[in-house]
Design brief:
mainly alpha, two-stranded antiparallel sheet, elongated, transmembrane, membrane, SND3_fun, transmembrane helix
Length: 201
Amino acid sequence: MKASMFAAPAVMMLYSKFGKDITEPQILAGYGTAVALVLAALAYIYLKVQASNDRGEVTVKVKKANGTTETENKTVAEYDAGEVRNQLIKVVMGTAIVGALYYYKGVLQALVIQAVMLPLNLFEAGIFKVHVLGEPAAGKLARPFKEDNPFAAFTEAQTAAKEKADEPVADTPASEDGSEAPKAAGKTAFSASEIGVAKRR
């Protein structure tokens, strides 16, 4: 499991206990620094991707507006640039949300949490690990990178269960006299009825 899954509640707990001495300007400065660092890292990665101009191919699944999924081939440079844009969108959306909470409601906790989560989420992203940490793009970091979706495992389990339920039931084997062998459920029900008769007697 990723550290980001536990970071938010841990930050909230620590802030509730030790955050009384932290002033509002300090929180704003910390959040602004976190956003600036993330944007600088994304700019560095984007420039590195453009300079590499990797022409290798990556096959990605694209979800259309009608709900269907199609496969597309992209170069590694195109795919990585798209991943940088996705990370940038997350930063912009997160900043807009916590900014609105602070401006209209005066909520400081959201700024504190995002000041930790923004750098942590980028650190755990495949695009950061490959281009900044220098880890090989293989195994768990093979392109296309796995999406950070907390419900992905649940969705995969649901799909597997549905596929298993849709599998055709095997034919019941015949007994030696040519008739079908009784099903286990029927046998259980019959045994239960026998027990009921025995009790009434």
